[in-house]
Amino acid sequence: MNANIEIARRGIMLIVSSPSGAGKTTLTRNLLDKEENVSLSISVTTRARRTSEIDGIHYKFLSRRQFELMRDGGELLEWAEVHGNFYGTPREPVETALAEGRDVLFDIDWQGTQQLYNSMRQDVVSVFVLPPTAEELKLRLERRAEDTQEIIARRLKNAAEEIPHWEEYDYVLVNRDLEKSFIRLRGILTAERLKRVRKEDIQDFVDHLLSDLKTLTP
Ligand SMILES: Nc1ncnc2c1ncn2[C@@H]1O[C@H](COP(=O)(O)OP(=O)(O)OP(=O)(O)O)[C@@H](O)[C@H]1O
Ligand SMILES: Nc1nc2c(ncn2[C@@H]2O[C@H](COP(=O)(O)O)[C@@H](O)[C@H]2O)c(=O)[nH]1
């Protein structure tokens, strides 16, 4: 057997959560640009589209009725109400990717993470991103200039309820320096991909290695 061969494994569900504005979207988009074999789970939402967003790329934007039809038809892996809007993860693309050994990145909140923990724990790796300070969180939301003052105030208020959920996650990152945070996030994915338990056919690989070794030793 060729020693460079890729060992087959199931895909990983890499979840990144944070209070609004801490930087999870920036970090996950960077990861998608730099890493192969990973795709973003595109959520459905009833939230209004921001000017910088494209339907079908950042989210699939739905009416409340369309969202309820998907949810009630069992088409969502998880769903939650966040900041007064509904968000959910379409089931089919995720299940297909994982079965084909492709990793999937999720930008979802703590409620969705809890649901995926309950249903798919063995596939989930979760990361909680914290802002360096409360003032910086507010500044980031303001500098992003995508939301009204009212929406920013609501998101900052909700941050106090979201942040205590950091303890439920596998990893925690304080996103002070973007480059350092990115290196850490990428490191988490790299290490998780190498975990022994994920390598479904590692035993076959080792058996071949041992049998080849026998031919080399008297
Ligand atoms: N380490 C950082 N230093 C300075 N600015 C940052 C850093 N990380 C992200 N930002 C900026 O902060 C703003 C908010 O980031 P981003 O949109 O990624 O947050 P988010 O956590 O995904 O928010 P939401 O949940 O609302 O989507 C963006 O303008 C982004 O460029
Ligand atoms: N439980 C889920 N949460 C989701 C999903 N998609 C996004 N989100 C979270 O909602 C908030 C707000 O996002 P924004 O784009 O409006 O700023 C943020 O915490 C996201 O992580 C989902 O499918 N399920």
UniProtKB/TrEMBL annotation:
The keyword rRNA-binding does not apply. SUPFAM superfamilies: P-loop containing nucleoside triphosphate hydrolases. Its main location: cytoplasm. Keywords: ATP-binding, Cytoplasm, Kinase, Nucleotide-binding, Transferase. Its EC number is 2.7.4.8. ATP binds at residues 18-25. It is found in: Cytoplasm. GO terms for cellular component: cytosol. InterPro entries: GK/Ca_channel_bsu, Guanylate_kin-like_dom, Guanylate_kinase, Guanylate_kinase_CS, P-loop_NTPase. GO terms for molecular function: ATP binding; GMP kinase activity. It catalyses: GMP + ATP = GDP + ADP. The keyword Transmembrane does not apply. Pfam families: Guanylate_kin. It is an enzyme of class 2 (transferase). Essential for recycling GMP and indirectly, cGMP. NCBIfam families: guanyl_kin. Belongs to the guanylate kinase family. This is Guanylate kinase.
